[in-house]
Structure formats: C-alpha cells, structure tokens
Amino acid sequence: MLDWLNDIFTRLLIGLAYPIDQFIVNGSSRYFWLYCVSGIIIALAVTDHGRRRHPGERALFDPANWTGPSARADYFILVADPVIRMVLLSWAYFNWEPLAAWIASSLHSLGVTGVATDSTSIGLGVLLTLTLFVVDDFIRWVVHYYMHKIPELWEFHKVHHSAEELNFATAERHHPVEILLGSFGAVLGYGLVNGIFIALFGDKLTVLTLFGANIFLVVFNICGGALRHSPVWISFGPTVERWVISPAMHQIHHSAEVRHYDMNMGASLAVWDRIFGTIYIPKERDIKGFGIGEETRDFYSLKVVYFRPLIRSAELFAERVKRWRSQPSRPVSTGA
Fold first, then answer.
1. pTM of the model
2. H or E element at residue 313
C-alpha cells in the first residue's frame, strides 16, 4: 500500500513539474521559452503596423488575452493534463522503439537488405530528420482531420476550439483523450520511419536535434510558431502559405465563423491542406472572433472541459451503434 501511494505521489510531482520542464528544457514543446521569446519579438515588431491597418486589433499583451475566463481555463488545463496523464493514463502510452525494431525485423525477414553506405554520414542524418518531420506532420494532419470529421472525436477536440481568446498556453488546451490519440499517431510515425531506416541503413543514424527537438521543428517554431495561438495577425504571404502554415492561417482555423470551419488543419506544413482541399489562404485579416459559437462559454467550466466530451462522445457512439443495428440486413446472394 505504501509503495502504491509513493508511486502515485511521485507521478503527481512529475506531472506538476511537467509544464516547467516543457518551458525551460524541452524544445519539442510549443511553449518552449525560445519560441515564446522569438514570438514576442516578432509580435512587437509587427504590432504597430498591424494595428494601423486594422484598428481595434489587440496587442499581444492585451490583458483580455491573458486574464479572462478562457485564459484561466488554459492555465488550469496546462497543469492538470500532465497530472492526469501521469497518474491515471500512463499505462496507455507506448514507446516507438519496439515498433521500429519490429518493422526492421519484418523487413529483413521479407528479404529487404541494408544499403551499403556510411550510416554515420551527415546526409543520411539530414534525410532521416527531414523524413521524420514530414511524416510526423502528415500524421498530425490526419489525426486533426478526423478529430474534426468524426462527431465522437469532435466532442473532445471542442475543448481546444472553445478558446475564446488565444495566448501561448492555448497550444496545450486539449482534452486528455485527444492527447492520447495524438500520441498513438506520433508513435506510429516514429516507429515506421525509424524501422525503415534501421532496416536499410542500420541503427547508427542520428536525428539532427536542437534543444532535444527535430531541428526542422525548431526552425519552424522560432519563426513564429508560438504566435499560432495569439491575437497578432501575422501572414507569410500567399506564396509561402501554399507550403507553410502561418499564424494567420491557424487563427483562421480557430475562427468562430462558419466559413472558416475545418480549414487549415496543418501543424507546420500547408501542403496537406492544399492536397486535400482544406486550405484557406487569407488575403487580409477577416476574423471577427474565436470559439465554437453558443457552446464557447460553457467551456469556461472545467467540469464541462473534462466530462462533457466523455458523456457526449459516448452518447453519439451509442446512437451510431443503435442506427447500425436497426438497419435491415441485406439478403445473402446465392449466385443463382
């Protein structure tokens, strides 16, 4: 009993410390200190110009973005989600390395042989790093797409879109179930890519990282990644935005206007939205507000944040099963 309590207490402390670690140490975090600093510098550089063009547009540090009920929910979720993951859901998370080893072994058993090359070469390291970045970005797009399109999953994703104001912490405003689903996608991507590269080139390849993160992700985030969740309108221009998601494009994704729904689902790259017809490249700032309509303010309540998605999703799934069971079965053809 004492060992169990000690384990729970340890997990609780780790969960509480997690947001601090993400800010100070982990370059994979969307609110890593360097990205926040670079975002602030970029925002301050463009704010005066932007407010002259769009009177009434809020500055980055407008108190309404950081102190209102929507922002307070962001901060609570930022702290509570890691605790929930560590204390209640740690059993559900997996490591990509066993999957990579299985894929490499399976490929070898199918006759796939390694390529004779220097597995320590910089070129292969760059290729692995870029492939991981692109595949991970595509899987993020796929998961995000289905979070919007499947009603049972949308109930969980509503938590993120219910943000009425955007600030750096909004990037982590997710229901634990959505985080879990996203982790499955990440494990799949990393396991698949690493498994193929191990089968072909051996296990000595090294991913190029900076601050513990994929270097391509670091570059993207330094160039305004943190501003994807901010009120500051920053567009890269239509030519660049055909390839890369800008802060302005992601603000369109959070827009409360129906015409913007389900647009710009990409994490870093815009190519997936362009390929699958969900891209929206704004010509000018045309957002009137953020949120999900009448339900937005319901999500000020943390009870709603954590429990309504579970209840609504279960109800929708039950209705789906009921409809499926009520459909008349088709007669089996005898081929006569």
1. 0.92
2. helix 302-326
Task: Burial-class residue 118 by CB neighbours within 10 Å (0-12, 13-18, 19+).
Answer: exposed
- Give the residue carrying structure tokens 């994979």: 28
Alpha helices in 162-270 (DSSP H): 176-201, 215-222, 238-241, 247-253
CB atoms under 10 Å from CB of 58, counted, come to 19
What is d(CA 208, CA 132) in angstroms, rounded to the nearest whole number?
Answer: 11
What proportions of the chain, in percent to the nearest 5, are helix, strand and coil?
Answer: 65, 0, 30
Straight-line distance from the first to the last Cα atom of the chain, in angstroms, rounded to the nearest whole number: 68
What gap in Å lies between CA 120 and CA 205, rounded to an integer? 6
Residue 48 has pLDDT above 80, yes or no: no
pLDDT at 336 exceeding the cut of 50: no
Answer whether 213's CB lies under 8 Å from 27's CB.
Answer: yes
Note the pLDDT tens digit of each residue in 156-168. 999 999 999 999 9
283 pLDDT tier (thresholds 50, 70, 90): confident
